[in-house]
Design goal:
By secondary structure, the protein is α+β, with helices and mostly antiparallel strands. It is built from three helices and eight strands, in the order ββββββββααα. The structure holds zinc ion.
């Protein structure tokens, strides 16, 4: 496995979370991209946090899902136990789960060193006039295949397949889910804060 590209989106100095220094995406073997990694300023230097999602649990009264930090149910308003999140061995509350992550320290080291190297280069580049960030931001002018449906149809075209109508209605569902998830990306934050 080789990291063939790292793209960095530097945060403004005055962003609301001072410890968040950048978002980034990592491409493996020119074939697979993982987005929404974060570069965080820690006490022992910068480190890389894997993409994560907020954990939820179900309301005991109505069964709706709520974020673990929610004090009242979003659906029925029922008061929730404020201390219901599980804790790790160090006693820290576990509010997020990694979506993609290395399973050994050698891989973590490969990713972290490639990302931090790209981060420092990007900071230098950003001082130059006409600097343009290369991180694909889906909210602005991403020019690749925009949706899962497009990706599937491009793959199908490349292999000479035809996408059936049954298939495309399923992919539309996936696309809707992806859009909903996408809207939540501003609620960033990993368990390490
Ligand atoms: Zn409820």
């Amino acid at each position: 496995m080789v990291i063939t590209e790292v793209r960095i989106k530097l945060m403004e100095d005055n962003n609301e979370n001072e410890r968040l220094q950048a978002f980034c995406s990592v491409t493996f073997d020119d074939a697979y991209v993982v987005r929404d990694l974060k570069i965080i300023e820690g006490t022992k230097g910068s480190f890389v946090a894997m993409p994560s999602r907020k954990l939820t649990d179900r309301c005991p009264q109505c069964g709706s899902k709520n974020h673990l930090r929610a004090r009242f149910c979003n659906q029925c308003g029922c008061k929730l136990d404020e201390d219901r999140a599980t804790r790790d061995a160090d006693g820290r509350v576990k509010l997020h789960a990694d979506i993609a992550h290395p399973i050994n320290s050698a891989c973590r080291e490969v990713i972290q060193s490639a990302v931090l190297k790209a981060f420092y280069q990007e900071k230098e580049r950003s001082k130059q006039p006409g600097y343009v960030c290369t991180y694909d931001d889906f909210d602005s002018d991403y020019d690749g295949p925009a949706t899962y449906t497009q990706v599937v149809s491009e793959m199908g075209a490349a292999r000479g397949y035809r996408t059936s109508s049954a298939h495309s209605s399923r992919t539309n569902q996936v696309q809707e889910t992806a859009t909903r998830e996408g809207k939540q990306t501003d609620n960033f934050g990993a368990g390490i804060f």
